[in-house]
Amino acid sequence: MTSQVISLRQQLSTYTSRTSPTSSGCPRNPSLKLDGFPKEVAVFVRRYFAGAVLSSDQFEHFARFCRDKPEEASEIFATSLRHEYPLRRSYERRALKTLVGILESLNVEIPNEIFEAVGECMVDVTSTSHRIFFNDASDMVAIRESNEQLSHGTTGLSCWQASCHLANLLSLVDFSDKSVIELGAGCGLTGISLATWQRVNHVKLTDYDENVLAQLSHNRKLNFGDCSDRVTVESIDFMNFSLEKFAFKPDVIIGADIVYDGSILNGLSRTIFQLLSLKENSFCIIASALRNVDTLATFDRAIVNNGLTVVESARIQFNQVTFDKDCSMDLPQLFPFSASVDCPTVVYLIARKDSCK
Length: 357
Hints:
It comes from Steinernema carpocapsae (Entomopathogenic nematode). The protein has helices at about 10-15, 40-50, 55-70, 70-80, 80-85, 90-105, 110-120, 160-170, 190-195, 210-225, 265-275, 295-305, and strands at about 130-135, 140-145, 180-185, 200-205, 230-235, 250-255, 285-290, 310-315, 320-325, 325-330, 345-350. By secondary structure, the chain is of the alpha/beta class. The protein starts with 7 loop residues before the first helix and ends in a 5-residue tail after the last strand.
């Protein structure tokens, strides 16, 4: 049987703009429309609510906006989003302190709403916070995460680089009418973004740790309420997975930052192999920050040893996806993220080896 899996670069090259589905149930905030702001201001707002590092130029652009359009700038900090989905307080303190300093240097009167925001974020009152991501239509995805990267003995309660990179990449791939399963979903960002902004048939978010599953259920409800049956949460253990009682048949398998522990990579590869056997022409996309080349090499061997093959690979870094020296393209920055270590994200398109003969 010849594989009908279409390469990512082909799927990206045939991308056309889409609007988010009105039936997605995603939360909306009509008082904060990014398309009403100048481009530089929209970038600032997008990065601020996503908790991403802001450059000095971005602060300067926004400070001038505060000077020229004080009422519009005030509305950004007066939005109910900051209270409904509280951002990380330590991040807001640093960002607002920098902004206030620049405004003072420009002799700009500081809006009361900014002073109030500074006061609100002076004390950390919870162990969790939110990241908010906007598409170009100002529809949003909200993700709650732990303030600590390692919490309750797991790293799955925080957002990681590869999930944001993969979400940016997949925003350019058409998943209309597809059934998608996310392995090791953690906070669920990538799967939830697909269910929110694309016309997918169904997204199943999976993980194994009880605390992570509880957070996945919380983030599902945060974005879809109780009315959507298009997104479900289920426990999957890579080391003991069986299709015997598994009824879901995915067209696409995705995973972000799940290639970090060499001891589970054979189990992960076996799980991928089994899931790919459920539907013809199904495929898997795995994204992993390249922190340890030995771990990735272990995954490469596990892929081969478990009847899989890498159809295509790419790297994401500096807002670009690169397939080879002659093929690269800019990615949208709908999901900005700032990592403490600057490393590329490796993306694999994986299929069963016996389907590629």
